[in-house]
């Protein structure tokens, strides 16, 4: 993806990680480098100088490359929470604001997957961009580890306060698996069916299914649907053991997360 002054690029790592780069004028910001060599190879081949690393949470597949990148690029600045298990130059948390490559970043705490998970928001080409780590996936959400399901629910509620054209950059390629679960819940949802076809073709061509938009997620993501469930989704949930009321959105959200764990 490109803007008039910035370019976004996803570097593949491990089996399904994406390390996002924001590039401007041969400089780059790196988000969640779980692995270092793929990043340094890409940057060095193109003579791009990294100026910063942003960390969303402490899991190894998001921070594993930080130490090696710091050693290779000693002038780089690492932005992270105090509990992210990296040697941060700048500690950030809810409400932090900083400026990099002509972009103003705002930090939201979007806990749930972990208790100190952060999202980094900025404006490019008049649209909000969210580097959301493992909170939101295309058609899905992160598993609950050191956070709580209530925190994840609140994070999804907060994301919905953003404009519909907001662009999200998740850190994993879980889309096809998530869409299968979404279609299981809403087999009549034509948006999900079309997305499965489109994204299966992207993966067949070895292309990312990401980023995604808030407007699109409201059509295909069961965890957004939990805030305004269709009759079909509620029926499928009840068929699979949901005992709550239709208007108990948190209970439904929690049930869907547990059901996805078993799917």
Automatic annotation (TrEMBL):
Pathway: Secondary metabolite metabolism; methylglyoxal degradation; (R)-lactate from methylglyoxal: step 2/2
Known EC number: 3.1.2.6
Enzyme class: hydrolase
CDD domains reported for this sequence: hydroxyacylglutathione_hydrolase_MBL-fold
SUPFAM superfamilies: Metallo-hydrolase/oxidoreductase
Top-level taxonomy: Bacteria, Pseudomonadati, Pseudomonadota, Gammaproteobacteria, Moraxellales
Metallo-beta-lactamase domain mapped to chain residues: 16-172
Protein name in UniProt: Hydroxyacylglutathione hydrolase
Pfam families per record: HAGH_C, Lactamase_B
Gene this protein is translated from: gloB
Catalysed reactions listed for this entry: an S-(2-hydroxyacyl)glutathione + H2O = a 2-hydroxy carboxylate + glutathione + H(+)
Cofactor: binding comment: Binds 2 Zn(2+) ions per subunit.
Biological role stated in the UniProt entry: Thiolesterase that catalyzes the hydrolysis of S-D-lactoyl-glutathione to form glutathione and D-lactic acid.
Needed cofactors: Zn(2+)
Residues holding Zn(2+) 1: 57, 59, 113, 134
Stored HAMAP family: Glyoxalase_2
């Amino acid at each position: 993806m490109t803007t008039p002054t910035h370019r976004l690029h996803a570097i593949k790592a491990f089996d399904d990680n994406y390390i996002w780069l924001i590039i401007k004028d041969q400089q780059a910001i790196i988000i969640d480098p779980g692995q270092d060599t793929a990043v340094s190879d890409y940057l060095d081949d193109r003579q791009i100088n990294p100026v910063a690393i942003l960390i969303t949470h402490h899991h190894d597949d998001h921070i594993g490359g930080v130490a090696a990148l710091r050693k290779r690029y000693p002038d780089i600045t690492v932005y992270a929470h105090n509990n992210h298990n990296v040697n941060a130059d700048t500690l950030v948390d809810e409400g932090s604001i900083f400026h990099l490559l002509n972009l103003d970043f705002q930090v939201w705490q979007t806990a749930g997957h972990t208790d100190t998970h952060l999202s980094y928001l900025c404006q490019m080409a008049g649209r909000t961009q969210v580097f959301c780590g493992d909170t939101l996936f295309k058609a899905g959400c992160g598993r609950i580890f050191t956070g709580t399901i209530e925190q994840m629910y609140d994070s999804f509620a907060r994301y919905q306060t953003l404009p519909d054209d907001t662009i999200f950059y998740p850190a994993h390629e879980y889309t096809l698996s998530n869409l299968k679960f979404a279609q299981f819940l809403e087999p009549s949802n034509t948006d999900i069916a079309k997305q499965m076809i489109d994204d299966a073709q992207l993966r067949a061509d070895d292309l990312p299914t990401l980023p995604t938009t808030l407007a699109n997620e409201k059509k295909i993501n069961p965890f957004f649907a939990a805030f305004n469930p269709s009759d079909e989704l509620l029926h499928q949930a009840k068929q699979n053991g949901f005992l709550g009321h239709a208007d108990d959105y948190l209970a439904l959200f929690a049930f869907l997360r547990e059901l996805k764990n078993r799917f």
